[in-house]
Write a structure and sequence with these properties.
AhpD-like; globular; AhpD_core; single chain; CMD-like; Carboxymuconolactone decarboxylase-like domain-containing protein; mainly alpha; peroxiredoxin activity
Length: 151
């Protein structure tokens, strides 16, 4: 298979990258969302979107605060509810609803569950977190950003 070199998006469009990184900075420093929850949502959204770079990066970030056994089960979190708090489960469910919005239409049931688990500002910040990671995935996957993982 021939390797087709892809553009490095943030070098080609540094102002666009700066804008997107500004949203990331807001999420990680300007919200009341726990850091672990942010990385959990970043990972789940990246898994849904199939962005290898982001899955690699956010798995590494999450492993700093969450045991491997738990991180390994993030894709099937709903099957192991005892491993995740009510708030984490609500965040994961909302992340899936918003990421798959063309299928789910962000259902009233999912919104009700998320709005029960999060204060209004936190729910908006969570949704910004999900939207931002979807944007990063839509750059990372098509431009095939590299992973740190080695054979």
């Amino acid at each position: 298979m021939s390797e087709n070199k892809r553009l490095v998006w943030n070098e080609v469009a540094p102002q666009g990258a700066k804008a997107l990184y500004g949203i990331h900075h807001y999420i990680t420093t300007g919200t009341d969302l726990p850091n672990e929850l942010i990385h959990l949502v970043f990972l789940r959204v990246s898994q849904i979107n199939g962005c290898a770079h982001c899955i690699d990066l956010h798995t590494r970030d999450l492993l700093k605060t969450m045991p491997f056994e738990k991180v390994a089960l993030v894709p099937v979190w709903a099957e192991v509810p005892h491993l995740f708090s009510d708030q984490y489960r609500a965040a994961l469910a909302w992340a899936e609803e918003v990421t798959l919005v063309s299928d789910t239409h962000a259902s009233d049931e999912a919104y009700a569950a998320a709005s029960t688990a999060f204060a209004p500002k936190d729910l908006v910040d969570l949704t910004i977190t999900i939207a931002a990671m979807n944007a990063f995935n839509r750059l990372g996957a098509p431009f095939r950003l590299p992973v740190q993982a080695k054979a």
